[in-house]
Structures are given as structure tokens and as C-alpha cells.
Design a protein that fits this description.
Oligomer: heterodimer
Number of strands of chain B: 0
Number of domains of chain B: 1
Number of helices of chain B: 14
Helix content of chain A: 25-40%
CATH architecture of chain B: Orthogonal Bundle
Largest interface: A-B, 35 and 24 residues
Distance between the termini of chain B: 28 Å
Structural class of chain B: mainly alpha
Radius of gyration of chain A: 19 Å
CATH topology of chain B: ABC transporter involved in vitamin B12 uptake, BtuC
Distance between the termini of chain A: 36 Å
Chain lengths: 274, 328
């Protein structure tokens, strides 16, 4: 059995906020050129794992490796040209325009001696085109809808020109149409050759878009692999505590989770999936 | 965009020059434009004495201190990600003031050379203390601001107590703690300028990383910036700017809060523009307040620290209301 090649791996990872341990001794590998989606109930540690993979959170124990080197030894700007992260906590400075925000993604490509160039302008324009926000370029980010704003943030991450892109719950707070719009965009970015890792809430969306699915619960990885293998009724019960049936998605043939009707006794254990 | 930039920069420079000229002309003995010119260039005249001994140092100090306070305010608002951040917010100004007041009252310090080191020490201690309380690992903008507010209140009480208890030094301190340019001397300008210059260079070098930090610590790290390092360097710059300004003419409040907001409304949130324009706009306001202070209560003067609040307060309230209305 040969594991697929992975530029981004972690081993023996213990992650904690202050003294509260979130995950213990976790091993994970992100297959190259995959669209990897991490799913699991709230507070299972999926966002924490993503932050550690992007070196935004320093592990208590264990190592994250990128291209065969400890990620902790990567120079900050070189790392930011290789691996991009769109965190949940991004704040748009008050009054900033779309093009100015996207331009800030060029930070790791600039320096005190290397200021704004034609190349920067070209990449920013291309990133806005790729995410369909070029008509909004001179608008204020404050005035945009949630879906537009999320695409602008993705454009900023794209302007970093990284071959790995990590997205922390990019669809949260969006309505269903905008969720699909953002996920379609992620799928397109993956199809263009990037390795994309996203944390998602919605199991059905995860199953539909992921090429590699990682299911977490209580800081552990319960299952990983292609969605068709990972998403089974038993697994969903184990991970989310949800009784369900898994059928084929009539549109895509991927697994589709249909929660059991509420008359079933275990309904009191149900963890809400949005 | 480049055209707009040149035009705005020229406008700011012209405005600054005009206000500086006004500051040379207005006073107990008003000078006309030809007299101001003679006062600057012709050593034989009365005007020369007035300009060189009183108005020029005063004007230059207003420029330097104004720039320092405007820049420190813009830096602080950005470091704390708090639009209400002002140089007083983190308690750094009042930390400098507390040290200087201690020096005046208990150590018999009377010169700027003594004030300035005390002011840095006071500002520096507050900055380090803040980093201990509200900084470090779990640092959030809110925690830093809260810690600053607490330190601010405690030190302000101390400054007031020393002032009330020490009647002998009260007069000297009373003008100083209000904020005044009236006692400006050429030597003060010469001593304060190098510190402010270092602070200005450091602040401008931080503009780009601060832009990254403005989007949240995680985003900043993802872009390759180092938040702890940037915040530390930012606090050093603020300490230099506030310490020097406070030592030179007392804790002048409000300028650092007001100016960055006004500038932001014109140039937007990009710190590469916001920082230099704040450093240009704040001295304009400072000198206008100082000039008015010489006129409104003749033959006596109103301290610039009082007038920045009296003029700035209502204007700022109007501005905030108007902006809120526009946002709604």
C-alpha cells in the first residue's frame, strides 16, 4: 500500500489553547493536488488543526512538515508565498476598497526595497477576475454582501500565489446559493492545480466537493479517504451522533446524508448540522 | 492616483507652511508679512529678536510635537485596532507625565534634558507593563486597551495627587500638565527633534506590516508578518513619540485621537498614506490652536492643550455624527 505523496504532513501533533488540549498525538497528511475537506461536529478541533497546518498556531508537541522541512523553520515570507490561509477571523479595515484589500495579498512578495510593481497589479487583477469580483474593484468592502465579501477574501489569498490554499469555514454565514458559489470557486481553484484544504460544516457539501475527506471527532481523526468510503451511515452516527441514511446524490452520485425522521428514539442525541 | 497623491501632498505642505507663517506673525506684537521676513533674515531688527527668541522655537516645537502626537495616535489606533485609541488610551502619555511630575516634585528636575529621560522611562515602563498585562501570548486588542485604560486612570490620579500636594512646584506643573508651547526654547526643539525623527522613521517603516495586522493576527501571520514583533516595535515608536512630545510640552490630549480620523476620511485606511498624512495634519491643527490661544484672551494666553480640546471636541463630535449618518 503506497500512500499518496504529501507536501504537507503532521505527526504526533498535540494542540492546545493555553492549557486546554484540543487534539493529542494527531497524524495527518494532505494528499498533493487534492481538495481535502475536514469535517466534524463543532469544537472537534478541525479549525485548530488547520491553523496548526498553516503555522498560525504553534503545536505543544509534534511537527508539521512542508516540502520535507519543519514548517517552524520556514522563513515567514517564503512560507506565505507557498501556503495561503484564509482564517475565520479576518477583519476588513474600515473603508477599504476591494482592490486595496486584494492587493494586500501581495504582502509576502514585497519588501522595503521591492515596492508595488506591474506584476503585483497583474496578479491582483487576475485574482479578482478568477473570483468574479473585478466589477466590484473600486467598491468598499463594507458595502458588499456576505458572498461577495467572501470571494474578495479568497481573491486576497489567491494574490499570494500559493500552491497550497487553506480555508477555514469559507461558507459560514452565507446563504445556500452563496455557499455553492464559494465551493464551486474552490473546486475550480483545485482543478487549476492547487492543493486546497477546507474546513466545512456541511457534510453533504463536503462529500460533494472533496476528493479527500477527513472526519474528526473530539480531536481525533475518525476516518479519512475518498468521500464514498468515508461517508457511511455508521460513520455519521459515530462522528456526529446522527441517525441517518446515506443515499447517492442524484446530481453527482456522491454520498448524500439524509437525517432520520424525528420519531426515531435517538433523536435526542442529534447534533445540529448546518 | 499618483496625481491625487501629489496634489494632496502639496496641499498639506502648503497648509502647513501657511499655518507656520501665521504662527510667526501672530502674538503680543503682531508682525506683517514683510516684518516676518525681516525677522527671519535681518539680525539688526526688533522683529528678528521676537521671531528668533520666541516665535520660531515655538512654531518649530509645535511642528515637531504635533507631528509626533498625530503619528502616535495613528499608530496606536492601528496597534489596538481600536478606533477610539488615542495616545492617552494606553496610558503611555500619562505614564510619561507621572514620571516627569515625580521628577519636578521630588527630585528637583527643572530642565528639558531631565524631563525627556524621565518621560521615556515613564512611557517605557507603562509600555512594558501593558505588554505584561494585556500583551504576550493571549494578547487581544481589547485586552490591551482595557489594561491601558486601567493604567491610565491610576497614573492620572497619581499626577493629580502630586499636583495638589506640592504647592511649591504647582505653578510650573500646572502649565506643563495642561500642555503648552509658550515656554519653547531653541534648545528644547534641538533636543526633542532627534527622538521624534527616530520615532517617525520607525513608524513609517511599520506601515506595511501594520496594514497586514489590521486584518487580524491570523491573516497577518498567513501573509508572512510577525504580529508580536510588529506590535513590540510599534510600542517602541509610540513610546519615543509620546515621551518626547510629553517631555517638551506636557500631555496634549485629543490631537492623536482626532487627526487620524480626519485623515482616514480623506485618504482611506492604508497606513502607508495614513501615517505620513497624520504627521502632516496634526501640526497644522496644533499651530492653529496655539495661534488662536495667543489671540482669544489678550493680553494673556490660553494653553494650546486647552484649545485643542475646546476646538477639537465639538468638531470631532460633528464629524462622528455626520459619518454615522452617512453609514446608516
Amino acid at each position: 500500500m503506497t500512500a499518496p505523496a504529501s507536501r504537507l504532513t503532521a505527526s504526533g501533533l498535540t494542540l492546545a489553547y493555553d492549557r486546554r488540549v484540543i487534539t493529542r498525538d494527531l497524524d495527518v497528511a494532505v494528499p498533493d493536488r487534492s481538495f481535502t475537506v475536514v469535517v466534524g461536529p463543532n469544537a472537534c478541533g478541525k479549525s485548530t488543526l488547520l491553523r496548526a497546518l498553516a503555522r498560525v498556531l504553534r503545536p505543544v508537541a509534534g511537527t508539521v512538515m512542508l516540502d520535507g522541512e519543519r514548517i517552524s523553520s520556514w522563513p515567514a515570507r517564503k512560507l506565505a508565498r507557498t501556503l495561503g490561509l484564509l482564517p475565520q477571523s479576518s477583519v476588513a479595515p474600515e473603508g477599504i476598497t476591494v482592490s486595496d484589500l486584494v492587493a494586500r495579498g501581495r504582502y509576502p512578495h514585497q519588501g522595503i526595497l521591492r515596492q508595488w510593481t506591474r506584476e503585483d497589479a497583474r496578479v491582483v487583477a487576475e485574482s479578482m477576475r478568477a473570483t468574479g469580483v473585478e466589477e466590484l474593484a473600486s467598491r468598499g468592502v463594507d458595502e458588499l454582501s456576505g458572498g461577495q465579501r467572501q470571494r474578495v477574501w479568497i481573491a486576497m489569498a489567491l494574490a499570494q500565489q500559493t500552491s497550497l490554499l487553506l480555508l477555514d469555514e469559507p461558507t459560514t454565514f452565507l446563504d445556500i446559493a452563496h455557499q455553492i458559489e464559494v465551493l464551486d470557486l474552490c473546486a475550480r481553484l483545485h482543478a487549476e492545480g492547487r492543493t486546497v484544504v477546507a474546513v466545512l460544516h456541511d457534510l453533504n457539501q463536503a462529500a460533494r466537493y472533496a476528493t479527500h475527506l477527513i472526519a474528526m471527532r473530539d480531536g481525533r481523526i475518525v476516518a479519512e479517504g475518498p468521500p464514498a468510503e468515508v461517508v457511511t451511515a455508521e460513520r455519521v452516527a459515530e462522528v456526529f451522533g446522527l441517525r441517518c441514511r446515506v443515499i447517492d446524490d442524484p446530481e453527482t452520485g456522491t454520498p448524500l446524508v439524509v437525517p432520520a425522521a424525528p420519531s426515531i428514539p435517538a433523536a435526542s442525541d442529534v447534533v445540529k448540522v448546518t | 492616483m499618483t496625481f491625487t497623491f501629489v496634489r494632496r501632498f502639496a496641499l498639506a505642505a502648503v497648509l502647513l507652511a501657511a499655518v507656520a507663517a501665521l504662527s510667526l506673525a501672530v502674538g503680543a506684537r503682531p508682525l506683517g508679512p514683510p516684518e516676518v521676513w525681516r525677522g527671519l533674515t535681518d539680525p539688526g531688527t526688533d522683529a528678528y529678536t521676537v521671531v528668533h527668541q520666541m516665535r520660531l522655537p515655538r512654531t518649530l516645537l509645535g511642528l515637531v510635537v504635533g507631528a509626533a502626537l498625530g503619528l502616535a495616535g495613528a499608530l496606536m489606533q492601528s496597534l489596538t485596532r481600536n478606533p477610539l485609541g488615542d495616545p492617552g488610551l494606553l496610558g503611555i502619555n500619562v505614564g510619561a507625565a507621572a514620571a516627569v511630575v515625580t521628577g519636578i516634585s521630588f527630585l528637583g528636575v527643572t530642565s528639558f534634558a531631565g524631563y525627556v529621560w524621565l518621560a521615556f522611562a515613564g512611557a517605557g515602563v507603562v509600555a512594558v507593563l501593558l505588554y505584561g498585562i494585556g500583551g504576550g501570548r493571549g494578547a487581544t486588542p481589547a485586552r490591551l486597551a482595557l489594561a491601558g485604560a486601567a493604567v491610565n486612570a491610576a497614573l492620572y490620579a497619581y499626577v493629580s495627587a502630586v499636583e495638589l500636594l506640592d504647592t511649591a512646584s504647582l505653578d510650573r506643573m500646572r502649565f506643563w500638565t495642561v500642555g503648552s508651547l509658550a515656554a519653547a526654547q531653541t534648545s528644547t526643539v534641538q533636543k526633542v527633534t532627534p527622538f521624534v525623527l527616530v520615532g517617525v522613521v520607525l513608524a513609517l517603516a511599520l506601515a506595511r506590516p501594520l496594514n497586514a495586522l489590521a486584518m487580524g493576527d491570523d491573516t497577518a501571520r498567513a501573509l508572512g508578518a510577525r504580529p508580536a514583533l510588529v506590535r513590540g516595535a510599534g510600542i517602541v515608536a509610540v513610546t519615543l513619540l509620546c515621551g518626547a512630545a510629553t517631555a517638551a510640552c506636557g500631555p496634549i490630549v485629543f490631537l492623536g485621537l482626532m487627526v487620524p480620523h480626519l485623515v482616514r476620511a480623506v485618504v482611506g485606511p492604508d497606513l502607508r498614506l495614513l501615517l505620513p498624512y497624520s504627521a502632516l495634519a496634526a501640526p497644522v491643527l496644533m499651530l492653529v490652536a496655539d495661534v488662536l490661544g495667543r489671540v482669544v484672551a489678550r493680553p494673556s494666553e490660553v494653553q494650546v492643550g486647552v484649545l485643542t480640546v475646546v476646538l477639537g471636541g465639538p468638531f470631532f463630535l460633528y464629524f462622528v455624527r455626520r459619518r454615522k449618518a452617512a453609514a446608516l
